[in-house]
Amino acid sequence: MIHLKKEQWFSNIRTDVLAGLVVGLALIPESIAFSAIAGVDPQVGLYASFCIAVSIAFFGGRPAMISAATGAMALLMISLVKDYGLQYLLAATVLTGIIQIIAGYFKVAKLMRFVSQAVVYGFLNALAILIFAAQIPEMSKMDTIGFISVAIGLAIIYLFPYIPKIGKAIPSPLICIVVLSVLAIALGADMRTVSDLGHFPDTLPIFLIPQIPVNLDTLIIILPYSLTLATVGLLETMMTTTVVDEVTESSSDRHQECRGQGMANIVSGFMGGMAGCAMIGQSIINVSSGARTRLSTLVAGVFLLCLVVFLKDWLAYIPMAALVAIMVMVAFTTFQWGAVKQFGKHPASFNVVMIAVVIVVLATHNLALGVLVGVVISALFLINKLESTVHVESQLIEHTHHYQISGQIFFSSADKFYQFFDFNEQVHTVELDLSHAHIWDITSVNMLNSVVQKFTSQGIKVEVKGLNEASSTLIDKYQNS
Fold first, then answer.
1. Model confidence pLDDT, tens digit, residues 135-146
2. DSSP string covering 231-242, please?
3. Which among 36, 127, 322, 468 is least surrounded, fewest beta carbons within 10 Å?
4. What is the pLDDT of residues 210-269, one digit of tens each?
5. H-helix or E-strand spanning residue 258
6. What is the 3-state secondary structure (H, E, C) of 400-423?
7. What are the structural domains, with CATH classification, of the chain?
8. What's the longest Cα–Cα distance across the chain?
């Protein structure tokens, strides 16, 4: 679905254009750096950022959100590029887009509500650690001048925003690149530069079909990567959508955003770019600059490509130390330091889930698997908590035993519920009051039936009362199952 409504494009023209220009500038160093992480030429990341940003402007479900090549996705491509090469990466990117479109039509975005904040913190912290770790190979190639350059770059990135008037008008990563490039040229320093990574684009991207065998063996190779890329891409996109919705106090179509990300990745794959997703940092820069419509995203992508095509000779002089400094900043910004500061105040279950996600991701380098483990552990903690809420109070009045049942009765707590009763007691009637309880599933329905039948078989009359409408409906539906 292409969004062409006037209010989604031209209701905030001046601010959106300016914000888009700023983001377009900021995308250049990150796109190059993410290409370095993935092990591909800079043009692959730059083409991806252009294609994805422009495509998502038309197909996305969240106006003013920025999507491009990202660190989370680049980390997942390293082994694929290393073992099979760029052409397989392009094919995996196309398949990633197809999977995301399918996920959008099946409304997989609804599953995000099962991802707890502890899982999100673990995801972001693991991502930050992986991004930082990805810089170590480049750092190992540096000499003293290289490390000094990284330190200067970090100082510029963190201190420049505090300069009055211009500090927030120009992205500090861009200033970092300019200053370090000028210093390297002026001093004649022998440093690794971006040109050592590969070629820069000098033309617009063109349509191409990945040059790989179209057979089952190829699918077996790229499918695991595509599934992981699609999952991580949608996770980061949905988290970014939530943040942007909160900042702009507006809503978005998450299912359309899933489909839009898929379409954008298909375009990127066929145009020589790698897979990408929404960018939390750049999206915040965009909306914080006042952007509210799709025009800002389009301008960011177009401006990025114009700069790269016309200034590629200058970009080749960028020292790798500048990109390392930028990626270290990205890692430190991504890491959720608040979760560490509040570690002692958070519940033990929160900390266990967060740490588990980090450990699984670092052990497997699979962000999607880490999130899955986190969701499962969160569910187990929740089930244990709900199970502990089941209580039964009993009172014997003459020949009637009254049971007051409270809590959430479901597959896990149903067994505990059954054990509360003494089926051999000498009474005429048993009254089960479920006014403060809720029956959730067929397991608990069958357990309630078993309790009633057990008492009845002993010649004891059973009265069930206080069922809420939902529980009563469920029992009527499944009591004979």
1. 888 888 888 888
2. HHHHHHHHHHHH
3. 468
4. 888 889 999 999 999 999 899 889 888 887 887 788 777 787 888 888 999 999 999 999
5. helix 254-270
6. EEEEEEEEEECCCCHHHHHCCCCC
7. 6-337 (no CATH), 390-478 (3.30.750.24)
8. 100
